[in-house]
Design a protein that fits this description.
Layout lengths: L2 H15 L6 H5 L6 H16 L2 E5 L1 E4 L28 H13 L4 E4 L9 H14 L4 E4 L2 H11 L3 H11 L3 E2 L9 H7 L6 H13 L3 E8 L5 H18 L2 E8 L15 H14 L5 E2 L3 H4 L1 H6 L7 E4 L20 H10 L3 E5 L5 E4 L1
Parallel strand pairs: 1-9, 1-10, 2-3, 3-4, 5-6, 6-7, 7-8
Antiparallel strand pairs: 10-11
Helix pairs in contact: 3-11, 4-5, 5-7, 6-7, 6-9, 10-11
């Protein structure tokens, strides 16, 4: 590096080496660094926290309905012109899916639905109640902040009341979906009418104040740019400073098929790895960085374990939302496959529960 830019980059590298939290201005320069520099800084943090462990869980996704009142331009799951096959599972069907997964060893069910106004508020709460009645030991991760916002409008209840109902029904933790990109101009273009970024944070803050944990996602690789990603991460860092309630940050790679964004230029592997590494560097106060294999691909998720990620998600068994947009994840993974892949990548597979308590080393 030469000249003023080289001096500035050297100054930034020194901050990374000294593990100093970066300002907004410095954070915005991170993408200008070489991938190797970012990877080294991110991996230093990862190794200090987790050594060579890579976490996964044994889980099952349940998507009760794909009928949705919202029209998000990136979505290929909800029933619309590009997915003309609407469905709504009965409560009994949802419970049966959970029971079968539990018999196969699942420790978690992950319940996320489209925003179906036809079934009513009680339908959603009763899914959780009945799963809890049948499976008192399973962890129920359910309903994004976007769904909470939808439930509030559907029922006339406040966010606090909806969240209290969820907790009473048996929800243990919340997933991080609905975050997309927090910049409101981008949200207006890709998911107009969905929960605002302000209300997304309000919902998670209330949940955290209730003593509960949640995750946070970031959908990237569509019409946003790097500055929007940095802004997104720094907003997460700010709430985490207040509540400490986020378990994991999950960068989700935009899936390109069967939606209306019409993105022409797609992310390179280098850009994805830079984003994961930067998230580890900026979010030291969020314990875990997940390279979600469903959207990142298995191979790149394993490589990402060298760039700050320490989690790869789980077996999933069946995945409907991202596979509708082209992800190769519809049938999930077998446990032996996931364990073997992690081992072959030079890491230690560690089964965790939904709150990151370690269950088993492989």
């Amino acid at each position: 590096m030469t000249g003023c830019k080289g001096i500035k980059m050297d100054y930034l590298i020194k901050k990374l080496e000294d593990n100093i939290d970066l300002s907004i201005d410095d954070a915005n320069k991170l993408y200008d660094l070489d991938l190797s520099v970012l990877g080294k800084a991110a991996q230093k943090i990862r190794l200090e926290k987790f050594g060579k462990k890579t976490y996964f869980n044994i889980n099952r996704h349940i998507n009760p309905s794909n009928i949705c009142k919202d029209v998000c331009k990136f979505c290929a799951f909800s029933a619309h012109r590009k997915n003309p096959n609407p469905y709504t599972l009965s409560i009994d069907e949802c419970v049966e899916i959970a029971k079968n997964a539990y018999k196969k060893g699942a420790k978690e069910v992950h319940v996320v639905s489209a925003h179906n106004p036809e079934v009513g508020y009680d339908y959603y709460m009763n899914i959780i109640k009945e799963i809890r009645n049948e499976l008192p030991d399973i962890h129920i991760k359910a309903f994004t902040a976007a769904e909470v916002n939808f439930f509030s409008g559907l029922s006339g209840k406040s966010y606090s009341e909806v969240l209290e109902d969820m907790a009473k029904a048996g929800v243990d933790s919340m997933p991080g979906g609905g975050a997309e990109i927090f910049d409101e101009e981008i949200r207006a273009k890709i998911c107009k009418g969905k929960v605002s970024s302000e209300n997304w944070f309000k919902i998670h803050e209330i949940w955290h104040r209730m003593g509960k944990k949640s995750n946070v996602t970031m959908l990237f690789g569509h019409i946003e740019n790097r500055i929007h990603r940095i802004d997104h991460m720094l907003r997460v860092r700010k709430l985490q400073e207040k509540t400490g309630g986020f378990n994991a940050f999950i960068p989700l790679v935009y899936q390109r098929k069967n939606n209306y964004l019409n993105v022409k230029k797609f992310l390179t592997g280098t850009e994805i790895l830079k984003t994961i590494a930067i998230s580890r560097i900026l979010l030291k106060n969020v314990p875990n960085i997940k390279a979600y294999w469903v959207t990142t691909t298995l191979n790149l998720s394993l490589v990402a374990q060298e760039y700050g990620a320490n989690d790869i998600d789980g077996t999933i068994e069946k995945e409907s939302i991202n596979s509708a947009a082209g992800a190769e994840s519809s049938k999930g993974l077998q446990l032996y496959e996931l364990v073997s892949l992690i081992k072959d990548s030079g890491f230690i597979p560690v089964e965790r529960d939904s709150l990151y308590n370690e269950i088993k080393y492989y």
